[in-house]
Amino acid sequence: MITMEDCIFCKIVKGEAKSDIFYQDDKVIVFKDINPKAPTHLLICPKEHHHDFMAAPPEVHATLIEAVKTVREKLGDKAKDFQIQINNGRGAGQLVFHLHYHFMAWK
Ligand code: AMP
């Protein structure tokens, strides 16, 4: 299990690792994926550390869904159509074990 001390996204939250931050509030941070798979590829993360989708309580997901809508509104027309991807577990391609929603748009 990855601990908060060696979690790269926790380091981004604390400002200890560099990232291209798009938006943040008290609960959520949104930054650009370093290896984008779409013209717009953002990662929406809770500031609190949760290992994966299954480990996070429903209220955390509710906060992230609200953040999806905020991001969508901030991006405007270029993200009118978008995709959310969540990889839960290594077998599904999860590489970073701090819950995150991928937000991707192609326009
Ligand atoms: P996943 O495979 O769902 O765990 O997604 C992890 C994502 O995090 C990948 O798309 C990586 O490109 C991205 N990533 C890893 N490290 C960083 C970082 N330091 N800053 C921004 N994105 C990152």
Number of domains: 1
**Total count of helical runs of at least 4 residues:** 2
Q: What portion of the residues fall into strands of 2 or more residues? A: 15-25%
* End-to-end CA span: 37 Å
Largest sheet: 5 strands, antiparallel
Structure description:
By secondary structure, the protein is an alpha+beta fold. The chain has a single domain, classed as HIT family, subunit A (2-Layer Sandwich). The protein is 22% helix and 22% strand. Strands 1-2-3-5-4 form a five-stranded antiparallel beta sheet, with helices on one face. The model has no long low-confidence stretch (mean pLDDT 96). Adenosine monophosphate (AMP) binds next to loops. Residues 8, 17, 19, 31, 33-35, 43, 87, 93-96 line the site of adenosine monophosphate.
Can you summarize this structure?
The chain has 107 residues and is α+β, with helices and mostly antiparallel strands.
Give the SSE layout.
Blueprint lengths: L7 H6 L7 E4 L3 E5 L7 E7 L11 H18 L7 E3 L15 E5 L2
Antiparallel strand pairs: 1-2, 2-3, 3-5, 4-5
The protein binds adenosine monophosphate.
